[in-house]
Amino acid sequence: MIQQRANMDWMLKDLADSVPQTRHVVVLSSDGLRMAQYGTDTDTADRLAAACAGLQSLAGAVATEFPAGDGRMRMVVIEMGGGFFYLMAAGARAYLAVLADEGVDAGLMGQRMRDLVARIGEHLSTPPRHNEQGA
């Protein structure tokens, strides 16, 4: 697990360095647990991961309203005062979240996030959690 996190750290740094105005990069599991982070402290990354879990669940519920779709959330972008928030599906039960300042190139951010997910999506997947007490 430590080796996997170290491998993700440089990949997340590469994303942040390649898109000016990037503030925070977090990889999280679908249940809101932080898996990796760059450019932020642990407490902030944990808060973002927890908030993202709710947002991806909400986006997935909205996605089911498209009859021709697969019911899965692919990407959410929110523009707010001060900047942008991006959340992208990044593998089975894993997500990539980015906060960026107002001056960010939104198109470039989306492209770099897609490139990163395509390169390392399998490394960002998390296995399903099982109830070990019942086993």
TrEMBL record:
Residue ranges of domain Roadblock/LAMTOR2 in the record: 9-100
Protein name: Roadblock/LC7 domain-containing protein
Record organism: Kitasatospora camelliae
InterPro entries: Mycobact_SerProt_Inhib_Rv3364c, Roadblock/LAMTOR2_dom
Pfam families in the cross-refs: Robl_LC7
Signal peptide residues on this chain, from the entry's feature table: none
Origin: domain of life: Bacteria
